[in-house]
């Protein structure tokens, strides 16, 4: 397996919470300089302050930025590289999730999810590549198991995550010849504010379907992501049972699909009566 160069300055989108924040915590413990990127200044400041309390002297910076804005993202990355030093690693962890029956999701729901999950990733990658120049670097794009298979209630979310898979795999062919290592990460569900919010109001069918794969801790997902990137892997699926489920969906698609359909049928209630 190809070995990637040591990380020095890692920029993490979605860095104020969830997986992005946990990856930052683990990288800081390894002595990597980290810049957290998020659009909410208050939450971003609280996240950085928490890391500094846990690890006095940790080299953690913040960048208030909405990665949906392509021009602002490119400018911000250029200024960041000039003021804090070269960026050699980008981890795209920013994402949102809207769950529900397909006919009850609006086109605005789909656009909102695509804007953040796909186009935010594209914008950050484009900006990072411009700062890399001819130097080697690493790009890590966080998709999801929902980017490899279909999931009840995830017509918007799964579509965006499938798009990230296609984008990342295509990007790798283009930039790896010049020394940029591109990694695709596809976790199942894990403990995070986004999943906690989903749990409060998810459809019963989605709850049953996603229970096919056990939920992981965010610490495990972050640790396997970091170790996988360091080992030179191009695709990382954290969790042994998650990897088994993904493999089964590829090698035994009929059986995997039948299991999912049976689970959904047990709790199926259909769309809610009031459309948005």
From TrEMBL:
<dbReference type="Pfam" id="PF00106">
    <property type="entry name" value="adh_short"/>
</dbReference>
<dbReference type="InterPro" id="IPR002347">
    <property type="entry name" value="SDR_fam"/>
</dbReference>
<dbReference type="GO" id="GO:0030148">
    <property type="term" value="P:sphingolipid biosynthetic process"/>
</dbReference>
<dbReference type="InterPro" id="IPR036291">
    <property type="entry name" value="NAD(P)-bd_dom_sf"/>
</dbReference>
<feature type="domain" description="Ketoreductase">
    <location>
        <begin position="8"/>
        <end position="193"/>
    </location>
</feature>
<dbReference type="GO" id="GO:0016020">
    <property type="term" value="C:membrane"/>
</dbReference>
<dbReference type="GO" id="GO:0047560">
    <property type="term" value="F:3-dehydrosphinganine reductase activity"/>
</dbReference>
<protein>
    <submittedName>
        <fullName>Short-chain dehydrogenase</fullName>
    </submittedName>
</protein>
<dbReference type="GO" id="GO:0006666">
    <property type="term" value="P:3-keto-sphinganine metabolic process"/>
</dbReference>
<comment type="similarity">
    <text>Belongs to the short-chain dehydrogenases/reductases (SDR) family.</text>
</comment>
<dbReference type="InterPro" id="IPR057326">
    <property type="entry name" value="KR_dom"/>
</dbReference>
<dbReference type="InterPro" id="IPR020904">
    <property type="entry name" value="Sc_DH/Rdtase_CS"/>
</dbReference>
């Amino acid at each position: 397996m190809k070995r990637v160069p040591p990380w020095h300055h890692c920029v993490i989108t979605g860095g104020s919470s969830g997986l992005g924040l946990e990856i930052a915590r683990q990288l800081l413990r390894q002595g990597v300089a980290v810049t957290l990127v998020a659009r909410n200044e208050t939450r971003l400041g609280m996240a950085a302050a928490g890391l500094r309390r846990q690890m006095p002297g940790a080299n953690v910076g913040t960048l208030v930025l909405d990665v949906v804005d392509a021009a602002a993202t490119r400018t911000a990355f250029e200024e960041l590289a000039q003021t804090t030093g070269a960026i050699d690693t980008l981890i795209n962890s920013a994402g949102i999730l809207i769950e529900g029956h397909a006919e009850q999701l609006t086109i605005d729901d789909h656009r909102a999810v695509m804007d953040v999950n796909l186009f935010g990733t594209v914008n950050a990658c484009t900006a990072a590549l411009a700062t890399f120049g001819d130097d080697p670097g690493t790009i890590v794009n966080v998709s999801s198991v929902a980017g490899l298979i279909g999931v009840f209630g995830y017509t918007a979310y799964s579509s965006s995550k499938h798009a990230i898979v296609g984008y990342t795999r295509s990007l790798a062919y283009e930039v790896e010849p010049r020394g940029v290592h591109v990694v695709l990460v596809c976790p199942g569900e894990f403990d995070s504010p986004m999943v906690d919010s989903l749990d409060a109001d998810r459809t019963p069918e989605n709850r049953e379907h996603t229970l096919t794969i056990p939920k992981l801790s965010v610490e495990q997902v972050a640790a396997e992501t970091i170790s996988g990137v360091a080992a030179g892997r191009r695709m990382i699926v954290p969790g042994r049972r998650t990897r088994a489920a993904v493999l089964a969906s590829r090698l035994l698609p009929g059986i995997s699909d039948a299991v999912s359909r049976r689970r959904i049928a047990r709790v199926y209630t259909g769309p809610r009566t009031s459309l948005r």
